[in-house]
């Protein structure tokens, strides 16, 4: 389950960046709204999956309040899911 969460974290981060760096400029500067719509849908699904998996793993692994809060906060900040994946989740898979 941890591996699946790591993949979800990376994909959520990619979709977040794609939404803001690629599709929003296309929508507002080039007048192409469709890529924003589809990437937005994908990001929404990945965001919800990330939150659900973070809470499930938090409870399952009995992580501290600090670690659980960092996982949840990371879903709101650009690049933060990549940081969390490398600092908090990657070491967990090595144990």
From TrEMBL:
InterPro entries per the UniProt record, alphabetical: DUF3817_TM (IPR023845)
Any one cellular-component term (Gene Ontology): plasma membrane
Transmembrane segments: 7-26, 38-58
Species classification: Bacteria, Pseudomonadati, Bacteroidota, Flavobacteriia, Flavobacteriales
Domain DUF3817 intervals: 2-88
Protein name, entry field: Integral membrane protein
Principal cellular location given in the protein's record: membrane
Keywords, sorted A to Z: Cell membrane, Membrane, Transmembrane, Transmembrane helix
Membrane topology: Multi-pass membrane protein
Recorded superkingdom: Bacteria
One Pfam family recorded for the sequence: DUF3817
Localization per record: Cell membrane
């Amino acid at each position: 389950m941890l591996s699946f969460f790591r993949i979800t974290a990376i994909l959520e981060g990619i979709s977040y960046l794609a939404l803001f760096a690629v599709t929003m400029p296309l929508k507002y500067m080039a007048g192409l709204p469709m890529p924003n719509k589809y990437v937005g849908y994908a990001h929404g699904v990945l965001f919800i999956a990330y939150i659900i998996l973070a809470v499930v793993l938090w409870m399952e692994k009995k992580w501290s309040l600090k670690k659980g809060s960092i996982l949840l906060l990371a879903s709101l900040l650009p690049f933060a899911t990549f940081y969390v994946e490398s600092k908090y989740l990657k070491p967990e898979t090595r144990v």
